[in-house]
Design brief:
- This protein is an alpha+beta fold and about 210 residues long.
- The chain has four helices and twelve strands.
- Strands 1, 2, 5, 6, 7, 9 and 12 form a seven-stranded antiparallel beta sheet that branches.
- It is elongated, with a radius of gyration of 29 Å.
- The termini are far apart.
- Pfam families: DUF3124.
- It comes from Bradyrhizobium guangzhouense.
- Keywords: Signal.
- This is DUF3124 domain-containing protein.
Length: about 210
């Protein structure tokens, strides 16, 4: 029996040096970390938790210096803006999703007249309203601005998010400027771009 067992053993059986085992262990850990980083980069949806609702911003308090008392005169002029926003953007042929923070800014371009903002509503890709940011209309001072910020981790809007901004004034006024600024990045690349609001005018009528 002993001779048979001996014949199955190699001529030389050398145990690996402890230092070699440590080096192999370190290499394995590095490979695991690299694989995990690549998986997180290429498959962000698998690691992203559910988007939680963000605390609502109190525009009256946050932008108190930009606001004034509501005008007592009749609001004879009205208008609205549709603002495309991109809470998330697909890259690398749809294999990678990059999330962005979104800052919506409503600028009163008039030097003399107050701009009344009646509604600021945020919609997702499917057209479902995600948030409404005004409890009541507010009057923006001449050349003043109010803003809404949606943080990067709030991805409820998706790739086709948008805002609707309704405004009014007591008389002739410079058309307000409404735009969304997106800021975000992946790895060492950073991106920022602006989406201009488009007036919601009715077309097709003769």
């Amino acid at each position: 029996m002993m001779s048979r067992m001996s014949s199955c053993m190699p001529d030389r059986f050398v145990l690996p040096h402890p230092r070699d085992r440590v080096q192999r262990g370190k290499r394995a850990i590095r490979h695991m970390r690299a694989a995990l980083a690549a998986a997180m980069l290429l498959c962000p949806l698998a690691f992203a938790g559910p988007a939680a609702a963000q605390p609502k911003v109190n525009l009256e308090q946050t932008f108190a210096d930009s606001l004034q008392a509501m005008p007592k005169e009749e609001l004879a002029v009205t208008g609205g803006f549709y603002v495309p926003a991109y809470s998330s953007v697909a890259m690398s042929q749809g294999k990678l999703r990059v999330d962005f923070s979104v800052t919506l800014s409503v600028h009163n371009a008039s030097e003399t007249q107050a701009l009344v903002v009646r509604r600021i509503a945020y919609f997702d890709t499917a057209g479902k309203q995600v948030e409404s940011y005004l409890k009541a209309p507010v009057a923006v001072k001449p050349l003043a601005t109010i803003s809404i910020v949606i943080p990067t981790d709030d991805v409820r809007g998706g790739t086709g998010a948008n805002f609707i901004v309704d405004w009014a004034a007591t008389g002739e006024i410079a058309e307000p400027v409404v735009e969304a600024l997106m800021v975000g990045g992946v790895a060492n690349a950073h991106y920022a771009f602006i989406s201009q609001g488009r007036p919601t005018r009715t077309v097709g009528k003769k």
